[in-house]
Each structure stands twice: as C-alpha cells, then as structure tokens.
C-alpha cells in the first residue's frame, strides 16, 4: 500500500509541477554523445522489462525496469548530477521512472525522443542477446 501511495504521489508530482520539465534528446544527439571523444559522463537508462531489453537495446544501456527504479537507486548513485537518458518502448514507463528519479535528486534527466520504437524504426544500432 505504501508503495502504491508513493507511486501515485510521484505521478501527480510529475504531472502538475512545472519545475519537473525534462528536456528531450534526439536520436542524433544521443548518437553524437555516444561517439564523442570527450563526451561528458552519461548513462542510457532503458526502463523496459528484462525480456524487452534482451530482445534488443541501445548499446551500453543499463536496464532497470520502471517499477523497480527506487529499489535500484544504488546502481545510479554516481549519476545524480550527470546526464541520464531515459527511454522505454513508447514513453509512458519512462515518464514514471523520470518522476521517481527526480524525486530522488536526479537533476540532468533527458528523455529520448520517440523512445525505443523510434530508435528501432530509424534502423539505428541495436544489441540483441
């Protein structure tokens, strides 16, 4: 029950706060960041299920399901003030994860424009396991 209440509060906080605007990062911007010789430290966070991730994901992405972000914040602790590019399949789960991350002090969140569906449709590089 406590987890459900926390989730509801995070979603409401995300929807109604103007301070929570998360900027988008385009596919091309992410590709440039990945290939830049002196890129700032960043991480690509894929919040889809493990099965979806294994079927195909962006190279170097870290997979933490949107519904377990809070339990795995330790894996992201070094990125609170660094760029975290968040995506899911189409956007809904990424928004939930972004709200959780913001509530836990992450300040440099970026949402991948079009999420995984657009990346795959553009025939951009994927890793399949």
Spans of at least 5 consecutive residues with low confidence = 12-19
Please tell me how large the radius of gyration is: 14 Å
Number of strands: 5
Relative strand content: 5-15%
Q: Distance between the terminal alpha carbons, to the nearest Å? A: 36 Å
Number of distinct helices: 5
Order of helices and strands: HEHEHEEHEH
Largest sheet: 5 strands, parallel
Shape: globular
Q: Helices and strands: which structural class?
A: alpha/beta
Strand order of the largest sheet: 1-5-4-2-3
Instruction: Please give the share of residues in helix.
Output: 25-40%
Oligomer: single chain
Average pLDDT metric: 88
Detailed description of the structure:
Helix 3 (50-55) links the parallel strand 2 and strand 3 (62-63). The longest helix has 15 residues, at 2-16. The chain has helices spanning 2-16, 27-35, 50-55, 92-103, 115-121, and strands spanning 23-25, 42-46, 62-63, 83-87, 109-112. Strands 1-5-4-2-3 form a five-stranded parallel β-sheet. Helix content is 38%, strand content 15%. With 129 residues, it is of the alpha/beta class.
């Amino acid at each position: 029950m406590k987890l459900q209440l926390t989730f509801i509060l995070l979603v409401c906080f995300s929807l109604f706060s103007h301070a929570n605007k998360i900027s988008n990062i385009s596919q091309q911007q992410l590709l440039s960041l990945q290939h830049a010789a002196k890129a700032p430290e960043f991480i690509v966070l894929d919040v889809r299920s493990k099965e979806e991730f294994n079927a195909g994901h962006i190279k170097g992405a870290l997979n933490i399901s949107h519904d377990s972000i809070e339990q795995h914040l330790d894996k992201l602790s070094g990125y609170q003030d660094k760029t975290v590019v968040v995506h899911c399949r189409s956007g809904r789960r990424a928004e939930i994860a972004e709200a959780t991350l913001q509530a836990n002090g992450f300040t440099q969140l970026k949402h991948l424009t079009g999420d995984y569906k657009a990346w795959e449709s553009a025939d951009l590089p994927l890793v399949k396991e």
